Amino acid sequence: MSCEIKFHSSIGELIKLKRILFPNQDAGDDDGESWSDDAWTWKTDFDDASEKNEDKNSNDWIQSCLISTSHQFGVIVIAHQDKYAVLSSKWEKKNDKEVRKYYVTYPISNTSDGVGEKITSVLCVPIKSLQKSSQGIPDWICVILGFHTGFVRMYTVNGDLLLTEAFHDEPVNHLKFHCSLVNPAKQELTVVYQKTLIIIEGIGLFNSLRVCRSHIAKGRALYGSSELHSQHPPLHYKKLGLQEQNRINDCFVLGTNSPSQFDHLMTASVAGGFQARYNNSPPVATGILSLGSLPYCAWHYAVEGSAAPLLSDVAYALASKVTSKLFSKTSGWLGWGGGATETGASKPKDKQVIEPATPVYPRYGLADSLREALSVSVSPNERLAAITDSLGRVTLIDLFRGVAVRMWKGYRDAQCGWITAWEEVGQLSTSTCLEEEVSIPRTVSFLVIYISKRGIVEVWTPQQGTRVAAFNYSKGAKLINISVDSSADNDQAQCCLLNPDGRLDEVSVPFHCALKGDSSQKARDLHILQQLRTEHDASATSLDLLMDIRHASIVNQGLDFLLECRHLVDPDGFVKCLDSIVSQYGKAEALDAESRLLLSRCRILSRLARLYIHLKAMQSLPPDYDTVVNASHVSLQDVATILRLDGEEISRIFHRCTTPTLHPSTSQSAIEINTFLCAFELSIVHNSEDCVRVKSSLSGDDRQAIGYWIWGTAFSRNIDLLDELSLVLKSSSIAADDLVAMLVDYWLHLSSLALSNILHFHKLFRILCNSAGPENFNNIETPSPWWQNLKELLSKSCNLNQACCAALVVRSVMAEFEKRKINRLNDKNADDTDVNMDDSMNDWEDMSIDFCAWNVLSKQLEDLSFLSRLIHYRPVQLRETQSRSLDFLVEDKYFDNLEFSLASILQKGRGAISELIARWITQNLLEVRTVIGATETKENLDESMTDLSDAELAPEADKLSVGSSEEAVIIQDLFRDLRQHLPHSAQYDVIMLNVAVEYAAMWIRNPKHMKLLQRSLETVLPLHSHLFRHGICRTLWSMSFLPIFQDLAILMDKTGRLPKNFTSRKINLPSPDQAVPFLEITMKLLDTTVSSAMSSEIEPPPFIRYDDIWPTCEGATPMQEVSIRHRLVNIDLVLLHHQLAQTLHLVASLEIKGVHVFSLFDQRVGRFAFFKDLHSYPPLPSQEADPTVVYNRLQFLKQVISKAVEHMETNQSFALDYINQAIKLGYEWSIDVDELRIKYVDLLYLNHMDHLAHEVLVSIGSDEKLVSTLLVAAGRRLKMLLKPSDTSALSPMTTEWLLNGFSSDTDSFVRELETCDSGSTKTLALLVECLRRIPSECNDHFIASELHSLLTAMQRASL
């Protein structure tokens, strides 16, 4: 901020104040509430003249008053004659702003009888609180009044008398409160008489005032009266008499001075001469500056502890004091004395006996017999003092050296004050700066001089500085100055002017006004910049301030601030401001580098602002009717003619571009001019014209917004307006390549196309290319950077339809430029504007490298546009149907990964398209047969898969609802179009490979949905190539199966069963329920791996082809190459893992306990081969296994059969399946399968499933073990069937065999036989089977025949 006089506060009750201070004068009825008869009287000229004199005197009323203010202007005390008023400040809200006003708090009534004595001096002293929580803040204000009788009385702001003292019998000239700079705790009150000075210690005075105020508060609380006084502690003060000066008008206590040894010796020598005596230590003295006449200024020094009063003087003073106290006490008892507050006219008092003063003599001074000093104002640092005199001069005195430094003439009746300004220092790092340097900034003091009669306020830098500022102000005001310490707030008011109308204005001076030379002008500009930053927006005032700045660097800062403002109100005004700066700097003959840069910047900003205004005017125009009519009449032939395409190609492109996409609409709100201007930056090139570039740091959204602001309106207006827009764009100096980039970027963000937009885009692009200059298109043999940048921009676009159309437009314009170059080479005088494009366009000689590259790019974008149509199609009903089938829902966040561009496709590698199609299929939970169709599926199936039924090969669309079938047909049509352009990337086997991997990856992310893994395996089976099938099985095994399979096998071997939960296990399966289906899929995968590996040995490797979109491409290896690169598996190792998987599956599904699966394999050889790479050849177990392992296997398989038979009644197919697995596993382990079958037969007979047992008997080859088992089964039944009386016909051997022929533990498995004849019939058939298989010479044959005879006889008897 600059030097200024600003409003601080005002007196709200000015009329009341005047009535209190001037009761004999009419204060005026400004409020119009009083009624006077004078309103009906006519006034003469003499009366008018007298009223003017009265008004003049009334305006100078404040000059006759004594004024003092408290700290921070909280309280103002104004005194006149014997009356005084106390004003307190309050904050009020006016026009949504806080305004400070003063109201009279004492006296309460409008009239006052006064204090009875003439007031000659006023002082407000802040009394600080003694509480620690107050932090030194003043607690209350004490009002000290000095009277012409010599009394000094101290009051509260409410008028309560606290203390009365009479130090001398002369009028009190001044009351001053001084705080030492060396020791802030040392505070002193100075009472200045005509030639006597009283210095009162501040601490003792404050304690006495606190005691008196506390006593008054107690009296008011207890007795309802504040007129009770207490004996306060005695005041400690020094009374000094200033000698050898004729008249003293003002003085200032310099404080305690401790001179150096040299100064002490020099003073003794000057005062006493050569023979002078002196003390060894210099005495401590109190310095006093007295002002008056003869001499003009005198420096008195009162030496501490010297010039003690005589004993007689002390006795006389003590007796006078005792007499005075006794007289006051007696008068109080007899009722003579008054109260604490004096009312009415005081009676003449007896002259008190006054203590004599200690004489103090001046040590040196300034002698001027014709000059009389009137007042002194000391600077805040107490180094300088401004003295006013009777000759209208203001003299600046150096208080330490005692010399006059400077003098100002022509300042009669001047009032002086001081202002301290602090330098605004930013926050510095504590690591680089000391704390003292940070906490104490530089300060400077300014001298303020107010000439009341002339109404002028001047601000000077003291000593050798110039005048900082001068202001015109009201006459008759009063200058009020308050000294502040270094810890005070920089915004605290220090010097104020009290106007006669009650307005209090503050004089404010910033620190930079003290700077000199060239830096002063820069400081002025810095101040204007600071004032500019205080503005809330870029208003007209801000623009005027910017034009007032002179330094180029500061103008740049001001421009930066305006561009950062939230709102730039007037773009036209901003243009005028820029033109003014350009005119100012353009007239200069020689400019430095910074000024030249500013000039270029302002020119560029002016052009950009005019472009913004033109675009805004275009947007405000309503759409033209002709524009709508012309847009509706644009035909495909018109577009084909411009783009030089045939009808079939343009119709296909237009049909594809109108296909709905997922790109959002580009409609945006209008942008502000500052946002528009900040999007560009000045680019300076040596020996070239300055141009404007779009900022490289600009975000994509901001770049899109700027492009929409420039081109959005152009596409919605008449095409004839584009010529006008092109002229404005050319004059804006924006680089042509940036304009083209923004145009193409705007085009690529359009969601759909119209034929008229293609015409607009073609014309705008052609105009911008013409403005770029021929140097960008001259070279035919090397690629042009102009076309390379556009090619890169289109390659990165995800809107393939728009990019394809843009590539065709660019290619057509490029062809025109190619023709121009050829004509220019053939005929130098050929015109560039008229080019016939009908001939020579198909000649190979006329085609440049750029044109060939754009042909390739157009073809690539066209092919990928068909892929974009498929990827952006959402089969909602099909997805819901498959989601219910798989019990899985794909989150929408995965669809964001399907956005692609040409650059991303080329970067990812040759398998990117197939991977993208597979990801789209899996995210929509589709089957490959649904996408490809039934006919193509059957054509691609292998001959080994022909045993599948037609129902299994039918596409999923045939099994869906009508809506889902329609979606399936649409998908098949889109895929058919895609295969016409990208046949190799959309090949059946290639898609199947990638789909299998994607479904497996989806299952890894969602392991509880096991149907996803099943779908992945189902996708592998229909592959045409066995090598592909073998490779994808290897990939799935290492990616999805092996880690979980290994952890599950180790866990089940450790626990001996399938755990009930996996919460504390490191297995990527959510629950044990997922283990059985996982193991089933694992066995199927291993079976598929073995079958495909066996077929791959005789199958030739497939020939892999790629589409033309991949000329040379680096990236990830395609899945078909990964599949054929896998080495053939070790079939024996795969079978070993299959045996382990089958074992785990039997244990998990049948809930068998106590089985350690690794104990079923060879400990030294077999276990070492587990979980190795399937193509490796580790040592495998031989056919002859360890007997312990054989026994464990046999017992395990018997457990499997026993568990399976338990499920025979509830689920026979389930039990038979597991029994067959056990038998098959027994063959693989080289176990005697007859034992397993005999065990199975025994369990069947035990559970009365004789029909199943008879079917198994045929497959058993060993009759010896079988006969004993059958005979035991028959014996168990007869034991339950025969009665004790029936066994009497049997031989002893047979009877003993029935009782002890088989173990008793088997009896617990025997169920109670049916009472019907079916039980004996089945037993008879069982005995017949035994007799048929037992040799006749065997004892068992005798037992069986005897039992058969008995049972036959029993049946006959029953009949």
Helix content percent band: 40-55%
By DSSP, the count of extended strands is: 31
Radius of gyration: 57 Å
Ends apart, CA distance between termini: 133 Å
The count of helical stretches stands at 43
Regions with little confidence, pLDDT below 50 for 5+ residues: 27-42, 307-319, 325-350, 426-438, 657-668, 838-845, 941-958, 1304-1318
Q: Strand-residue fraction?
A: 15-25%
Commentary on this structure:
It contains 43 helices and 31 strands. The strands form seven sheets. It has an eight-stranded mixed β-sheet, covered by helices on one side. Strands 10-11-12-13-17 form a five-stranded mixed β-sheet. A four-stranded antiparallel β-sheet has the order 6-7-8-9, with helices on one face. α21 runs antiparallel to α22 (849-871) and α22 runs antiparallel to α29 (962-981). 45% of the residues lie in helices and 15% in strands. The chain has 1359 residues and is α+β, with helices and mostly antiparallel strands. Mean pLDDT is 79; it is low at 27-42, 307-319, 325-350, 426-438, 657-668, 838-845, 941-958 and 1304-1318. β10 and β11 form a beta hairpin. Among the domains are: 115-242 and 321-355, no CATH class; 244-309 and 356-362, no CATH class; 624-666 and 712-863, no CATH class; 873-1046 and 1074-1125, no CATH class.
Concise structural overview:
With 1359 residues, this protein is of the alpha+beta class.
